[in-house]
C-alpha cells in the first residue's frame, strides 16, 4: 500500500495545534502558540508531537479496542506509512467484561521508522532483525539487544556490572550513590556530618524478555558503610531490539527522619573504560536549543603552534586524529606540556541557569568554561573507540541537577548523573511551620477560615512520598557526531510517544466515552471550544512564567491566584500546590482524548508523573492515601483516597503503557482499608453511627474506591473486584436515599458497605468533583445494576434542582455549590432519561453567569493582562478570574455536557 492509498483509506486528518514544548511548556505567553499543525488520522497512529523523531531508540505506547473487537491471543502487526511491516511486541493491559481486550501495549525496535502515520492491524507481527535476548546466569542477568549487551547484577551494589559493545567492555559498575547529612546546613559553627551511601540489590525479576522489548525489574535499598538500609527503590531497565541505548526508570521512597536526614546528593554513577589517546578522548555537554559544548581531554586547538588543520578538524569532529608522525613536530614533541583536563562538571541548580567548569586534577582550581540557561544535560564521555552517552528526562525541569565526569585522563573514567546535586542546599522536607498553637481540632478548623490549611501535628510528614527519574545510557562504539549527539539528547530528554487518533479513543468506548470531538458549528459551541483551548494555553504559559519546576514540584500546578501580589498563592496554607484538587488531571486527560493536542498531553503526563509519586504515600502510616493541597505537597493533614485514586492515573497507564504508573495503580487497589485506620472526617463528624465499623463517604471515598477496584478488575480480569463493585453498588442503589445517604458504614476486613439509619439526606458539593461522575459513567456502562444507575440519575436530577423540588422530594433543600460543575450530572440524567427539558436545564446551570449572552460571550473573557516591573519580579501574563478548581470543573462540565446534551445547547 503506498502512502496516498494509506491516507485515503485512513480517512480525513484532523489538524491540531503543535505542542508549545515537549519539555515543560516553555513559553512566555498564551499568544506564543506556534502555527504548525499535527495530523491525527482516524484509524492510524502518530507521534504525539507530530514529526517522526530524528533518533528512535525504541518506543512503547498503548492502544484502545472496542468491546469484542480483539480477542485474547489474536496477533497484531504494525504497518508503516509506506505499507511495510514493522516488528511489534504486544501485550494486553485491560479487558472488557466479556473477556475481550480493552487496551493493549506495544513496543517497536530501535531504529524502526514507521513514518508519521501508521497502523496496527490484526496479523502475525514481523520479527526484528535481531531479537533482544535475556539469559539468566548464576550472578547476572545478561540482556543483549543485538548491538549492546548488559550484565545486570543479582546482588551487591552494582545495578549493571558491565556494558559491552562489539565484544569490548565500554562501561562498568553502574550503581546508585548518595550523600546525607544530619543537619540542614553545614556551617563552621555547627558542622554537619555527611555520610555516603550506595545501592544494594535485593531482588531481580525478569518482567519481559523480547523479542522487541525486555524489562528487568530491580528492587533494593540504599546502604551506608555503617550498614543502615533506607530509601527503598524500584528500578527498571528497558532494552529494545537493535538499540545502542538502554533506558532506566528509577523510583525511590523517602523513609528517613526529616529532622536529621537531609539528603545532600542522589545520583547514578558508572565507570567508562578509556583506551584512546588523551587527545582522542572527548567530553560533550548538550545545553539549550541543540547547543553543544564539546572539548578534548587534551586540547590541541588554540595552541601557539599548529598541529595541522586535519588534526584540529578531527578533534573538533570527534574522530580519530592522524598519527602523531603526521603532526607538526613543534606540537607532537611537546605534548607533555599540554594540560590534561581530568574533571568536568555541569551544574543546574535552578530552572534558569547552568554552568560548566573543568580542572586538571584535585588540589587545583576549577576553571569556568561557559554558562547557559536550561541545559538538556545529555553528556558523552569516551574516545574515538567508544564511550558512554548518557542523560536524564526533564533534566533542568527537575533541578537541582548536575553531571560530573572525573578521571577522564585515566584508564577508567567516572561519570555521575546527579538527580539531586551535591552543590545545592541539602534536601529539607521538614514541615514549614511550628503549628502556631493549633493543638486541638477546634483550633485547626478555625485556622481553615484564614489560611485554608488543614493542619494537624505530625501529619505534615514526607515519610513515604516518592520520586521517579528516568535515565538513558548509550553504549557507543565511537564518539558520536555533534549532530547525532543532539538528536540523541532530544530523544533522552523527552522520548517520542505514539498516540491514537481522537476518533479512535472515542469509537473504542473507553473511559466512558464522555467526550466528543471539537465542534465549532455554532457560536455557543465555538465559545466553549475557545475557552477550553485558552485554559490549556494559559496553564502551559503559567508553568514557565511562574517557574513551576523543581525536584518535588515539576508537574503540579497552583490552586488559587493572589491578584494583589500578582502571584499564585504559593505561601498560603491550602491555596498553593493543587495536588489533584477538583480533578485537573481528569480535565487535561479528557481534553487530550478529544483533541489529540500535544501541549495538553505533556501537561497531563507531567501532572500524572508528579501526582502519582509525590502526592501519594507509598510507605508508612498513610500508605495508600494522598495529601490535600498545601504549601508543601505532603503538608496538609487531610490524607485521603480522593487524591490517591486510580481515577486520575489510569489514563496515563493505558495511553502510554508506563510501568511505574502501573505500579501505583496496584498500590492503591486496597487503599480503602486505610479508612479503618484514619477517618477522613474525624474533625467534623466526631460521632460514629456504626461503632466498630469505619465510615465511607458515598462521594469522594466511594468514587475513589470504585476507581481502584474497577481498574484492578479490568487490568486483571479477576472477578473478585467485580464482585466487590456489584455488592457496593447494590447497597447504594437499594438505599432509600441512594447517593443522598452521604455515607455508609464500612467493614474494612470484608470491604463491604453497610447502611445505617439517617435522620435526613446529606448533600456535599465535593462528592462528585473527584472522579465520581466519570467512574459512575463507566460502572453503569460495564455493570448492569438498574437500581444503582437510577440512584445516580436521581442525584443528578436533584442536586441542582430548585429549593421547592428538593423540599418536595428530599424533605430539605440546599443551595447548590459548584452549580456549573454539577450541570454535567444533570446532563447525564437528561441523556439517559431522554428528558429534553432537563437537558436545557443543564445548559442553564452551566451558563449560570450568562456567559453566552451578547455577541461575544465567553470569548470576551479570554484575555490576559501583561504585568511588568516594578509591580512584579518578572514580566507575567495573568488572568485573575482563573482558578484551578474552576478551570478543571468548568472544563470537565463543558466537555461532558457537549457529549451528553450538546444538541440542546443551541
From TrEMBL:
Residue stretches making up the PcRGLX/YetA-like N-terminal RIFT barrel domain: 44-121
PROSITE patterns: PROKAR_LIPOPROTEIN
Pfam families with a match to the protein in the record: PcRGLX_1st, PcRGLX_2nd, PcRGLX_3rd
Domain spans labelled PcRGLX/YetA-like C-terminal alpha/alpha toroid: 496-905
Domain PcRGLX/YetA-like central beta-sandwich: 132-489
Domain of life: Bacteria
UniProt keyword list: Signal
Signal peptide start and end residues: 1-26
Database matches in PANTHER family: CONCANAVALIN A-LIKE LECTIN/GLUCANASE, TAT PATHWAY SIGNAL SEQUENCE DOMAIN PROTEIN
Name assigned to this protein: Tat (Twin-arginine translocation) pathway signal sequence
Biological source species: Marisediminitalea aggregata
